[in-house]
Amino acid sequence: MSRSPQRSLRPVGFAGLVWGAVLLACGPELFTQVQGRRPSSGERTAITLLAVRHLGQGVLQVLASHHLSIVYAGIDALHASSMIAVAAKEPTLRRAALTSGAIAGVSGLLSLLARTQRKG
């Protein structure tokens, strides 16, 4: 019996919701732990925007996952790629950028796995 695509992406969506909520609740503190310094005002804004992105994508993955898994994977791949570029260009942000990129990469990979699982 094949799993429904909504069920297969729901765990990824719930994880995105949790991660977005964590970033909203204590993103600057996490940044401080990773980077060893407090985030600037612009970095705090970026953390908030990233949290909102994770929350929005998480909601969509939970509620409307059936046709969009490739889109979710693409969004996460773009995010991961952009974080690699940030890490290369801004060594002072390398740890935070690579952490964010790794999380996006895992999310994208899980979205793709859910898609292939559905097709298989």
Structural write-up:
84% of the residues lie in helices and 0% in strands. By secondary structure, the protein is mainly alpha-helical. It has one domain. Helix 1 (5-35) runs antiparallel to helix 2 (41-63), helix 1 (5-35) runs antiparallel to helix 4 (94-119) and helix 3 (69-89) packs antiparallel against helix 4 (94-119). The longest helix has 31 residues, at 5-35.
Layout of secondary structure:
Layout: H1 5-35, H2 41-63, H3 69-89, H4 94-119
Give keywords.
120 residues; mainly alpha; globular
In terms of per-residue confidence, which ranges show pLDDT below 50 for 5 or more consecutive residues?
none
Give the terminus-to-terminus CA distance: 11 Å
What is the makeup of the main sheet? none
Averaged pLDDT, please? Answer: 89
Task: Classify the secondary structure makeup into a structural class.
Answer: mainly alpha
Q: What proportion of the residues is helical, as a percent range?
A: over 70%
**Element-level helix/strand string:** HHHH
- The proportion of residues in beta strands is under 5%
